């Protein structure tokens, strides 16, 4: 019993004085690579050359072969083919199939076919279901000794298209709203003007720059030339020897002598193109490029007259000078720039309960 107690006391006394175990050695870190020598200073480098801005090209749709319509690009001048061609334009009949369907260039129907251009002051067919204009080639202009190639569209804009007949030395400025058909003749070309009607009378003024043609359908047409030209005629055609210059053709829309007087006054100034531009807030401006001398005479339909601004543009409305059209009466307007200002629409709705004051800042932005 005493031996057991002695061993117990020895154990209790000596146990706290035992040597503690050594902690495990941390792992030896991997040897670091020797520092690399400092790089030698590099020679001074010049800055990179400035980069030119990338030229942005318009997106071109891939060419496809239509099984319904041939490629219309053959009717466009090559310089127009680098940009997208217009679709659903006012002159698209000049580019569909053979390009020989009439197109309405107010106030005339115009048809291009067989190296010639025909003009019609159309009558209208009406019934309860529809209305359409009847094309009759009242006058057809061509080069007397040239045949062959079709027309080429050399330029176009919002309000105009220019048709060239390269083999005939003829260029037609077709501008919407012009009471005249304007033709530029180059190269001392003999001109032929024919009709499907009978010519009842033909006369020229003393300077041979104005010629009057009366047809058996009741129409009277005026032909103006920029220089003297002697015209001969038979029952259905009018011809000239070589001519270079401008020819303008217009129908008399009524029997009042006032019509002829107005056309005489403005026959020397002709438009070559026209654009619709947004130059002022809430306004649309029609601007025409013109040549010749004097003021420009154009025609406005009822909507134009309703919103034609009297301030900010130098125009004069000839209220009694009128042509008929499928869009209503076309009225003469003198001026090469119109400002069209639509009527303001007032806002009539309102909040029944009003707006909370704490929302005012958010609404004002």
Structure, briefly:
By secondary structure, this protein is mainly beta. Helix content is 9%, strand content 36%. It has helices at residues 2-14, 257-265, 302-307, 360-364, and strands at 103-105, 108-113, 116-120, 123-126, 131-134, 139-143, 152-156, 160-165, 170-175, 181-194, 199-204, 210-215, 220-225, 231-233, 237-251, 269-277, 284-292, 297-300, 316-323, 330-334, 337-340.
Report what the structure shows.
This protein is mainly β. The protein has a domain at 89-268: Beta-galactosidase, Chain A, domain 5, CATH 2.70.98. It has helices spanning 2-14, 257-265, 302-307, 360-364; strands spanning 103-105, 108-113, 116-120, 123-126, 131-134, 139-143, 152-156, 160-165, 170-175, 181-194, 199-204, 210-215, 220-225, 231-233, 237-251, 269-277, 284-292, 297-300, 316-323, 330-334, 337-340. Strands 1, 2, 3, 6, 7, 8, 9, 10, 11, 12, 13, 14 and 15 form a 13-stranded antiparallel β-sheet that branches. The chain has a three-stranded antiparallel β-sheet with strand order 16-17-21, with no helix packed on it. Strands 18-20-19 form a three-stranded antiparallel β-sheet. A hairpin with a 2-residue loop joins β2 and β3. The protein is globular, with a radius of gyration of 42 Å. The relative contact order is 0.09. The model is unreliable at 1-6 and 9-19 (pLDDT under 50).
């Amino acid at each position: 019993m005493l031996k057991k107690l002695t061993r117990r006391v020895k154990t209790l006394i000596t146990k706290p004085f035992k040597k503690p175990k050594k902690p495990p050695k941390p792992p030896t870190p991997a040897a670091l690579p020797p520092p690399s020598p400092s790089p030698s200073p590099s020679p001074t480098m010049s800055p990179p050359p400035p980069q030119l801005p990338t030229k942005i090209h318009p997106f071109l749709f891939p060419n496809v072969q239509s099984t319904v319509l041939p490629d219309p690009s053959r009717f466009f001048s090559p310089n127009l083919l680098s940009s997208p061609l217009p679709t659903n334009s006012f002159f698209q009949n000049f580019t569909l199939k053979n390009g020989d369907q009439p197109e309405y260039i107010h106030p005339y129907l115009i048809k291009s076919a067989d190296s010639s251009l025909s003009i019609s002051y159309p009558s209208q067919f009406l019934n309860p279901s529809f209305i359409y204009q009847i094309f009759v080639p009242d006058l057809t202009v061509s080069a007397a000794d040239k045949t062959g190639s079709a027309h080429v569209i050399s330029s176009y804009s919002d309000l105009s298209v220019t048709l060239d007949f390269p083999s005939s030395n003829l260029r037609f400025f077709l501008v919407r709203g012009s009471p005249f058909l304007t033709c530029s003749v180059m190269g001392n070309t003999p001109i032929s003007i024919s009709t499907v009607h009978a010519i009842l009378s033909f006369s020229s003024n003393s300077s041979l720059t104005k010629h009057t043609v009366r047809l058996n359908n009741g129409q009277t047409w005026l032909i103006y030339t920029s220089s003297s030209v002697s015209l001969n005629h038979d029952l259905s055609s009018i011809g000239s020897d070589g001519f270079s210059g401008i020819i303008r053709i217009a129908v008399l829309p009524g029997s009042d002598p006032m019509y002829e007087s107005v056309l005489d006054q403005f026959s020397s100034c002709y438009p070559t193109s026209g654009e619709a531009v947004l130059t002022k807030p809430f306004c649309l401006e029609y601007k025409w490029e013109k040549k010749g001398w004097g003021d420009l005479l154009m025609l406005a339909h009822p909507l134009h007259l309703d919103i034609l601004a009297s301030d900010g543009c130098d125009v004069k409305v000839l209220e009694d000078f009128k042509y008929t059209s499928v869009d209503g009466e076309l009225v003469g307007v003198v001026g090469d720039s119109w400002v069209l200002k639509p009527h303001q629409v007032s806002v009539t709705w309102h909040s029944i309960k009003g707006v909370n004051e704490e929302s005012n800042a958010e609404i004002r932005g």
